[in-house]
Amino acid sequence: MSNLHVFDHPLIQHKLSILRDKDTSSKLFRELVSEIAMLMCYEATRDLPLEDVDVETPVAVAHCRHIAGKKLAVVPILRAGLGMVEGMVAMMPNVKVGHVGLYRDPETLEPVKYYFKMPPDIQERDAIIVDPMLATGGSAAAAAQFLKEVGVKHVKLMSIIGAPEGVERMRSEHPDVDIYLAALDDHLNEHGYIVPGLGDAGDRIFGTK
Ligand code: PRP
Ligand code: URA
Dmax of the chain from CA atoms? Predict the structure, then answer.
């Protein structure tokens, strides 16, 4: 699966093991989601283009490189994706944040859109969608579609845990989208939850269950 990247960095894997634990508090869960997002951001931006720049240090001119190319937007899928924004923004302080509001219909498991607000120059930006869970892939595929419809040319998806079903759906509907995961789990259960997963990410972040 060439466009799937699963990060096996020890720090990410260690934090993920605590995140999965059913006894982890909401406070710690939120902190871990943010920290994992920060570490994944570091890896998922490895291919950003650089350009040469000369910087005058107090001693001499240093030949340096800084990030070139298109500007970025981070696009969390509400609600749970919000938990990943702080970590992303910590790494990329000037990034703009667009929001896509989607929830899964509990019967059909299909995403229902209730909010969409992007930076005004979104068509000039590359976008990284963030959502901790890639389950059926319905939410991520819809978010990628909305972004393409407003003119975004290059979309990435960053999720903490993915199911094979979600990866397959993304690959068939959006083969151009690179997918970054901290873990690829086994399967979905009959309620559309990732097994073993971590339960309902939104509820665990916001303490709503
Ligand atoms: C969760 C999760 C994803 C979606 C993944 O959101 O945060 O957005 O499910 O499932 P899918 O791949 O099958 O679409 P949920 O609908 O529970 O909403 P919430 O974030 O508001 O809790
Ligand atoms: N959404 C979640 O929050 N968890 C899952 O396991 C699947 C979808």
Answer: 66
- Average pLDDT, integer, range 39-67: 95
49 is written with which tokens?
């283009």
- Residue to mutate (ligand 1; options 33, 77, 109; most atoms within 8 A of CB): 77
Q: Distance between CA 175 and CA 178 in Å, rounded?
A: 8
Residue 208 has pLDDT above 80, yes or no: yes
Which residue in 111, 122, 50, 120 sits closest to 81, CA to CA? 111
Q: Is the pTM above the cut of 0.70?
A: yes
pLDDT over 60 at 169, yes or no: yes
Residues 6+ apart with CB under 8 A from 176: 3, 154, 155
Please tell me the number of the ligand nearest to residue 113's CA.
Answer: 1
Could you tell me if the CB of 76 is within 6 A of ligand 1? no
Residue nearest to atom 2 of ligand 2 (CA): 200
**Catalytically annotated residues:** 104, 108, 200, 203
**The pLDDT of residue 1 is above 80:** no
